[in-house]
Design goal:
The structure holds 2 protein chains of 2 kinds.
Chain A: E1 5-10, H1 19-28, E2 38-46, E3 49-57, H2 67-70, E4 76-78, E5 84-86, H3 96-100, E6 107-108, E7 115-116, H4 122-125, H5 132-136, E8 142-146, H6 153-160, E9 163-164, E10 176-179, H7 183-186
Parallel strand pairs in A: 1-10
Antiparallel strand pairs in A: 1-8, 2-3, 4-5, 6-7, 9-10
Chain B: H1 8-31, H2 42-55, H3 58-63, H4 72-75, H5 82-115, H6 118-128, H7 142-157, H8 161-167, H9 180-203, H10 211-218, H11 221-240, H12 245-255, H13 260-284, H14 290-314, H15 332-355, H16 368-371
Helix pairs in contact in B: 1-2, 1-7, 1-9, 1-14, 2-5, 2-9, 2-15, 5-6, 5-7, 8-9, 9-11, 9-14, 11-13, 12-13, 13-14
Classes of the chains: A alpha+beta, B mainly alpha.
């Protein structure tokens, strides 16, 4: 059976070290000033009873990706295994997909002059390795796996813990699931 | 800090496309609908439409990451992308406008061709398409004029598509407004008509206002269009003020924040409300003043750009790529690129005015229908 890649992010384990950001940059040669993986930091509660919350953010490799139908030249596509990728030889760099992504996951790569984003380290996945961010996470907050395999780690986590996705109202059906997601963080911009 | 992804070049593209559509609609008000008030500006309106249509893709080509691959828009056409339709619609519009111009200008072109020498003669020969007639100038094809004019008019109405391009993006709540295509079209009509009238005033040689000029200056279609533009804007932004927090944040930037002076100040008050008042006053005045019309139309041309800039840029405040904050203002490179496009536009307009017989060569018919009667 075909893989159906997904990621589970356990926010209870995230310490906000940003190692995922650095590992991604290093692994994928992401240019200065842009990020495939980044961290949103928020302070919640009322002073002096405040605590930090960290939200690692990526391309959500949506099941219903809004970036795919808007690409005017068919450079953005979704594979059968669920990965949403960009054909860098085809992309004209118009930026429409960047506007269409509700997660701000895409950016214009200033070196290759095309749209760019997280590929879930497809080159590593295809060689049986975990993505760089998953490999490097010191709190083991990130887990990647095959949703079609009930024995996989992600299937196990999703079966045992309540998980949410970001911005469900957008109807994008993300394949990145968050455990311990504060309701405030689900809809970005809510006070 | 980098500029927002869709900044000055995209706004310039939308603006120039709007000018092309608006100018053509102004021309068609005379040629298609027979509104006499637009007769004096019809030729300049057609020239403006053709020039702006040809120049409108330039800012986008400069903005594309890979401009050398821009032909993929045709070879890898993706019908679900509203952006993909921009190319075919623009190309079809340019072809229809140029063909229509061939019929519209035909008698003038023939006479001008006979009198012209050198490069201008060769250019006029190309514009004529068919073999130059000998003897009396035959009438133009009424059928050709009507059909190409109507096709170009329908295509001009499609120039609200930038509004659709933005309006379908649920990720950008400020933009996600089904009324966007109509608002873009109304802005196009306002800016195109204003530019045409401004050009006509600037190129006018007569010091006093003649009857035909007075009729044009008294026409209320332009101030009424500005009124519609203002009403639609006020309704849209009042509604959006009660929308999601993301939209309210963008609205705050547009109303009282960083873009307030350009959007509300320049775009809506100085660039729309004030000229609407001035144009209405001028139209109701016994002797309409060209100076008032010139200032009003200049303000409209500037205001339409300012309004569009504010709307497009503020829409990108939410969900910045990679969580990075971007500047709401253009980079030096973007300004230089736009200056180059404006310089090219000026050159193109001068060439078009030099080649085309836009000043009356043959006596104008009283209405378009008279031109259809064979001599």
């Amino acid at each position: 059976m075909e893989h159906r890649w997904a990621m589970v992010i356990d926010l209870r384990r995230c310490v906000g070290c940003r190692a995922c950001t650095v590992a991604c940059k290093s692994e994928n040669n992401v240019p200065t000033g842009v990020f495939r993986t980044w961290l949103r930091f928020e302070e919640i509660g009322e002073y002096p009873n405040t605590r930090p919350r960290f939200l690692p953010l990526f391309c959500n490799h949506c099941d219903n990706p809004p970036c795919v139908p808007v690409c005017p030249v068919l450079a953005t596509y979704k594979r059968d295994d669920g990965l949403v990728l960009i054909d860098y030889e085809k992309c004209i760099g118009c930026g429409y997909c960047i506007q269409a992504c509700p997660y701000g996951a895409r950016y214009m790569n200033p070196v290759q002059r095309t749209a760019d984003k997280c590929t879930l380290c497809v080159h590593r996945l295809e060689s049986g390795q975990a993505p760089a961010c998953v490999e490097t996470c010191i709190g083991r907050a990130l887990t990647v796996g095959d949703l079609n395999n009930p024995e996989s780690d992600v299937s196990g986590l999703l079966a045992n813990y309540p998980a949410q996705t970001l911005k469900p109202e957008q109807g994008t059906d993300p394949m990145f699931f968050y455990i311990g997601l504060d309701g405030r963080l689900v809809h970005e911009g809510e006070p | 800090m980098t500029s927002v992804e869709w900044g000055l070049p995209i706004v310039a593209n939308y603006y120039l496309a709007g000018l092309a559509a608006g100018s053509y609609i102004t021309y068609y008000l005379w040629q298609g609908f027979g509104l006499r008030a637009f007769r004096p500006v019809a030729k300049l309106a057609w020239i403006s439409a053709a020039v702006f249509a040809v120049a409108s893709p330039l800012p986008v080509l400069a903005h594309l990451g890979q401009p050398g691959r821009s032909y993929y828009l045709f070879t890898s056409f993706h019908w679900t992308s509203s952006l993909a339709w921009a190319g075919p619609i623009l190309v079809a519009f340019i072809l229809a406008v140029l063909l229509n111009g061939r019929f519209f200008f035909y008698p003038d072109v023939v006479l001008a061709y006979r009198a012209a020498r050198g490069f201008r003669r060769k250019a006029l020969r190309i514009l004529m398409i068919s073999k130059p007639p000998a003897g009396a100038v035959p009438p133009t094809s009424a059928f050709g004029l009507k059909v190409t004019g109507a096709i170009a008019f329908v295509l001009a109405l499609f120039f609200g598509y930038p509004g659709l391009e933005l309006g379908i993006l649920g990720s950008r709540p400020l933009w996600a407004n089904p009324a966007n295509p109509l608002m873009f079209l109304v802005t196009a009509v306002v800016s195109g008509m204003a530019f045409t009238v401004l050009l006509w005033i600037l190129l006018g040689r007569r010091a006093s206002v003649g009857p035909a000029e007075a009729e044009a200056l008294r026409n209320l279609i332009l101030p009424a269009s500005v009124g519609l533009f203002l009403v639609m804007n006020v309704m849209a932004y009042l509604t959006l003020s009660y929308a999601s927090p993301e939209v309210r944040e963008a609205m705050g930037i547009l109303a009282t924040g960083e873009l307030g002076w350009i959007f509300v100040g320049l775009g809506l008050i100085v660039g729309a409300l004030l000229p609407a008042f001035l144009l209405t006053w001028n139209a109701l005045h016994a002797k309409p003043l060209r100076a008032v019309a010139a200032v009003s139309t200049l303000l409209l041309v500037v205001g339409a750009f300012a309004q569009k800039y504010g709307f497009v840029v503020a829409g990108q405040v939410a969900n910045p790529p990679g969580g990075q904050t971007s500047s709401l203002w253009p980079t030096v490179t973007e300004i230089v690129e736009l200056a180059a496009v404006v310089a090219f536009l000026y050159f193109l307009l001068q060439v078009a005015l030099w080649i085309s017989p836009w000043r009356t060569v043959t006596p104008e018919p009283e209405s378009p229908t008279e031109a259809e009667v064979p001599a």
